[in-house]
Design goal:
The protein is α/β, with parallel strands linked by helices and 258 residues long. Helices cover 41% and strands 15% of the residues. Helix 8 (196-211) runs antiparallel to helix 9. The radius of gyration is 19 Å and the shape is globular.
């Protein structure tokens, strides 16, 4: 759903606790591509249907394996989140319940994580003979190594509840369940009212800092700052401030992050 500059992407298999099956595996990349291409979308909220689960990972009864054998053996076969699909729109995870295994992708790749006080994380990969790999590798950028190891290596015997996830810095806010979506919408609305290009470049600079040495990340951030200073939104923002009026931002173009 898209309204007021905000796309809400709902994982809608409540009867299977929003586990990702073959159909969702096909549909999620299409949804993210549509979000990226839509200039009306300036922020994204991802949540799960119902009040029990956010996402319980891959549905073992209908495993999300592509029909193409070559693709099935590629990391590209897991393309569920915005980051995995190259989406440059800010993404808030509204964690409304239990998150298991591959469902952790959505939390690890989110820009902001708002969780219900009933949310909890479980990683069952090793319990069913799979490698707990992609999700913990992403998580270790957001929380301490020992906490990630405890989650990944115990096969679900150790669970991370909402309070502990917040203490470790994985959840940015923990709220009563009824307050999660209103808070996410308020945050998304705050993001959506600012320059889409400035927001995208700010976001890119921050994510780069997790993947590059500090000196390189600062150089890349400076390059993005200089690019934005030459963008019409920079002069429009200053003039609107001086005129005491709301700025009129330009729509983003495909080359804005080049």
């Amino acid at each position: 759903e898209v309204a007021d500059g905000i796309a809400t992407l709902t994982l809608d298999r409540a009867d299977r606790r929003n586990a990702v099956n073959k159909a969702m595996n096909r549909e999620l990349p299409l949804a993210w591509a549509a979000i990226e291409a839509d200039p009306a979308v300036r922020a994204v909220i991802v949540t799960g249907a119902g009040d029990k689960a956010f996402c319980t990972g891959a549905d073992l009864a209908d495993q999300p394996i592509p029909n193409d054998p070559e693709l099935a053996r590629s990391i590209r076969s897991i393309s569920w989140t915005g980051r995995q699909n190259g989406c440059t729109k800010p993404f808030i995870a509204a964690v409304n319940g239990m998150t298991v295994g591959g469902g952790i992708h959505f939390i690890a790749d989110a820009d902001i994580v708002i969780a219900s006080d009933q949310a909890r994380l479980i990683d069952t990969h090793v319990a069913v003979g799979f490698v707990a790999g992609l999700e913990p590798v992403s998580l270790v950028h957001r929380m301490p190594l020992g906490a990630v190891m405890k989650l990944a290596l115990t096969g679900g015997d150790e669970r991370l509840d909402a309070a502990e996830a917040h203490r470790l810095g994985l959840f940015d806010e923990v709220l009563p369940a009824a307050q999660v979506m209103p808070r996410c919408r308020a945050l998304a609305a705050n993001i959506a009212r600012h320059s889409p290009t400035a927001v995208a470049r700010s976001r890119a600079a921050i994510w780069n800092a997790l993947e590059q040495p500090l000196s390189q990340a600062l150089e890349e951030a400076w390059r993005l700052i200089m690019r934005q200073n030459d963008h019409p939104d920079a002069s429009e923002g200053v003039q609107a401030f001086l005129d005491k009026r709301a700025p009129v931002w330009q729509e983003r173009t495909p080359g804005d992050l080049a």
